[in-house]
Amino acid sequence: MKLPENKKERLQVFVLIGIGVAAVLYAMTQLVVMPFFASKQELRSSLQTKKAKLEKAERELNFAPKIKTEFDSVTGELDTIIRAHVLRPILGSYLVGVSETLEMQARSCNIKLDEVQEIGVREPPRTGKKATVARAFKAYAVQVSVKASYEQTAAFLRKLEDMNPYLCVSDVRITGQPDSPETHRVTLRIEWPIEVEGGKEQGAAAGRGDK
Fold first, then answer.
1. Phi–psi pair at 12, nearest 5 degrees
2. pLDDT given for residue 144 in this prediction
3. Among 10-14, 58-62, 178-182, 183-187, which range has the highest average pLDDT?
4. Suppose 139 and one of 53, 54, 186, 191 were both cysteines; which one would form an S-S bond, judging by CB atoms 3.0 to 4.6 Å apart?
5. What are the tens digits of pLDDT across the range 24-56?
6. How far apart are the first and last CA of the chain?
7. pLDDT at residue number 209
8. Distance (Å, rounded) from C-alpha 179 to C-alpha 86?
């Protein structure tokens, strides 16, 4: 291409060429450079997201052995408590084992039990919202009647609670005896934890329920 000899015309040609070059550069920037940088930014963001997920997964994997150890420890402690303190039926009845335990502890306090009456299986008190799944434990209750002094009654209750810290004396009624001021008519409601599966007691009838 031959440039015009006229200086003004030659300058106009240079201006047009400059405008054309600028237009080409702008078009390349919009069509090639900007998409390239946008793609790089998107790729960088994706890599950062994946890196964060990988670091989180690594932290969870590092904690997994500790969580399993703690879970096994708590499960072991719970199994020990259940074996030692949760009431089990004997020949399909909770009352047999309960009566033997109460008689043995009463004799150690020089108390003679007048009566051990079965109340049956009770729901333990609930707190908060109503449970949506079957509870793992319920309570088996009996009513015990004795004639004893205050000291004997207190010793009897201490022995029961020392024997089983999960046992609950949920009701105590003491009536004085005018003909024998040193002794009282004592009525106790005593409850033991029992394990249940699917809302049903293990190996024993539900009893008569609340009274």
1. -65, -40
2. 96
3. 183-187
4. 191
5. 666 666 666 566 666 667 767 777 787 788 778
6. 114
7. 41
8. 40
Q: What residue spans define the domains of the chain?
A: 1-85, 94-127+134-201
The two three-digit tokens of residue 12, written as one number = 């106009």
Identity (one letter) of the amino acid at 79?
A: D
C-alpha span between 89 and 108 (Å, rounded):
24
Which tens digit of pLDDT belongs to each residue from 91-127?
889 999 999 999 999 999 999 999 999 999 988 766 5
- Mark out the alpha helices in 86-208 (DSSP H runs): 94-108, 150-163
Distances in whole angstroms, Cα of residue 23 to Cα of each of 11, 31, 38, 72: 18, 12, 21, 72
User: Would you say residue 145 has pLDDT above 90?
Assistant: yes
Q: Please tell me the distance from the alpha carbon of residue 160 to that of residue 166, in angstroms, as a whole number.
A: 10
Pick from 162, 157, 148: which is nearest to 189 by CA?
A: 157
